[in-house]
Write a structure and sequence with these properties.
Elements (H helix, E strand, L loop, with lengths): L6 H11 L6 E12 L3 E10 L2 E10 L13 H13 L7 E4 L9 E5 L7 H6 L4 H19 L8 H4 L5 H13 L6 H12 L8 E3 L8 E4 L2 E5 L6 E3 L2 H7 L19 H12 L5 H28 L5 H7 L2 H12 L21 H19 L2 H39 L5 H13 L10 H16 L4 H7 L6
Antiparallel strand pairs: 1-2, 2-3, 3-5, 4-5, 6-9, 7-8
Helix pairs in contact: 4-9, 6-7, 6-10, 7-10, 7-12, 7-15, 8-10, 10-11, 10-12, 12-16, 12-17, 13-14, 14-15, 14-16
């Protein structure tokens, strides 16, 4: 593989490339804002003939294969943003594309648009109260405009691949099976989805990642739709269901549309713009799929960590979020009672400091000393590290008993003995190959309790966990 340029080289190469931009004078700085294994976004401070201004760079640094069925690439992404803007969808003006001779990989430079992009801040900022009031309806209107973009006249039929509901489920399910991490609730949900496929509908352009966190919002409403990297042709209701997926509500489960709005407002905006009546059951299928898809996506992050592709503390931590998505699947397709494990107290021995005390000391150091002293991404990663140590502490306290009870249930359900890993795989494969029926005695009760107790370790304050336990969130 060719050597990737370092930050100073990137800035110099970009400054040379920007000479093609009309009115460009100088590049002062570039700040990385976000980025995963394959794409980065930077804020650029530049001098133009008319004065100082900010621009944004979107740049690819690797293959797109980790996004399930892949993406269209940044050249097509730039064109999609331009087409959407022309159709009345808020978004940035794309100024120039990178060329191979620039030495920066695939990418483009675009207008910098002000607005808040962090989902949690969008949902709680006092400055965005007025924007939130109409945001769900705005989202419906924007999605209707995206779905109305003509595929033939724009040539998108040639640039994007088409994927239907059954294929999306199967591709996601197959990807998960390659991780060697059997999670029977994922297999159960895949079976449920294939048994409840929505009716056929006319395919359209699908954004693919339209959600809170990929929108820019200002005091008066939405200012941009971002991140078109998994756009494709498919069922338009996929976008509505993804926007309503529980993972993107950021602490506001009572507002199903991104944590800021209602189904009614979203559907009203879509129907008014498109003239098409929305079937809530159709959207619900894609809402279930959203939690299923992201549960697999989180395991994909863990797989990247284990394979050495990205050894960041963030990648490992996101792997543990799969249980959050799985408990959302539980609440959607097999709701019912679940019981959380409570470890009986015991003698931890006289040694000081104990392992749990060492973990707590490091967690406290990160959270209360390192995080306040750090800005930007380093401070964020220190907070992620502290959260990971919280998981370690809960695992030490409850993990052994939770696994013992899970193994006992599996032995009763399957009628065989084995290690926990062997029993999990037997159940997962039984669901995959149809040898275990969906209504097998004790199956849904086992899945509920297993998933709930895993999320109690991974993130006990997650709203889906609280809902599954039937606990009042205010208590």
């Amino acid at each position: 593989m060719p050597r990737m340029p370092d930050p100073d080289e990137i800035q110099q190469l970009l400054a040379d490339a920007l000479l093609r931009l009309d009115g460009f004078v100088a590049l002062h700085s570039m700040e990385r804002l976000s980025g995963g294994a394959s794409q980065e976004t930077y804020r650029l401070s530049v001098d133009m003939v008319e004065g100082a201004r900010s621009l944004a760079l979107r740049r690819s640094i690797g293959p797109a294969g980790e996004r399930g069925f892949g993406g269209p690439g940044l050249a097509v992404e730039a064109r999609l943003m331009a087409l959407a803007r022309r159709a009345g969808v808020p978004g940035p003006d794309v100024h120039m594309a990178l060329r191979p001779e620039d030495g920066l990989g695939e990418g483009f430079v675009m207008e910098w648009i002000a607005g808040e992009s962090l989902g949690a801040r969008i949902n709680r900022s006092d400055e965005l109260v007025a924007a939130r009031a109409g945001l769900a309806r705005e989202c419906g209107q924007a999605l209707a405009r995206i779905h109305a973009i003509d595929l033939n006249s724009t040539g998108l039929n040639d640039d994007l691949h088409e994927v239907g509901p059954a294929e999306e489920v199967r591709q996601t399910w197959e990807r998960y099976q390659g991780f060697d991490s059997p999670q029977p609730m994922i297999d159960f949900t895949a079976r449920w989805l294939l048994d409840h496929l929505p009716p056929e509908t006319d395919a359209s352009l699908v954004h693919g990642d339209f959600r809170n966190g990929n929108l820019l919002v200002g005091p008066t409403g939405m200012t941009a739709v971002l991140d078109w990297e998994i756009a494709h042709i498919g069922d338009p209701m996929r976008d509505l269901g993804w926007l309503c997926t529980a993972s993107w509500r950021f602490g506001h489960p009572e507002k199903p549309v991104g944590g800021f709005g209602s189904y009614e407002d979203l559907f009203a905006g879509y129907e008014a713009e498109s003239g098409r009546v929305v079937d809530p059951a159709h959207v619900r299928f894609w809402e279930v799929f959203g939690s299923f898809w992201w549960s697999v996506g989180c395991l994909g992050m863990a797989d990247q960590y284990r394979a050495g592709l990205d050894r960041s503390v963030e990648r490992a931590a996101i792997g543990r979020r799969s249980s959050e998505c799985q408990v959302d699947c539980v609440n959607l397709v097999i709701p019912g009672p679940a019981t959380g494990v409570v470890r009986e107290g015991g003698d931890d021995g006289p040694d000081l400091p104990r392992v749990d005390e060492l973990v707590e000391s490091v967690r406290g150091f990160l959270r209360f000393e390192v995080v306040p002293a750090m800005d930007g991404r380093t401070g964020f990663l220190a907070r992620v590290a502290a959260n990971s140590l919280d998981i370690v502490g809960r695992e030490m306290e409850h993990g052994a008993e939770s696994r013992r009870l899970e193994a006992d249930r599996l032995r009763n359900l399957l009628g065989v003995d084995g290690t926990l890993g062997e029993l999990r795989l037997l159940l997962a494969e039984g669901l995959r190959y149809g040898t275990i029926p969906m209504d097998a005695d004790g199956l849904v009760e086992h899945l509920r309790n297993t998933v709930v107790n895993q999320v109690l370790i991974d993130q006990p304050t997650y709203p889906g966990c609280i809902a599954a336990l039937g606990v009042d969130a205010d208590s």
